[in-house]
Write a structure and sequence with these properties.
The structure is a single chain. With about 20 residues, this protein is mainly α. The chain is built from one helix and no strands. The radius of gyration is 9 Å and the shape is rod-shaped.
């Protein structure tokens, strides 16, 4: 798994957006 991969970015976005929703 790449620390700076798209998977991490997407996961961070969901992790940051889901709680806000």
């Amino acid at each position: 798994m790449d620390p700076l991969g798209k998977g991490t970015i997407i996961h961070c976005l969901f992790a940051c957006i889901l709680p806000l929703l």
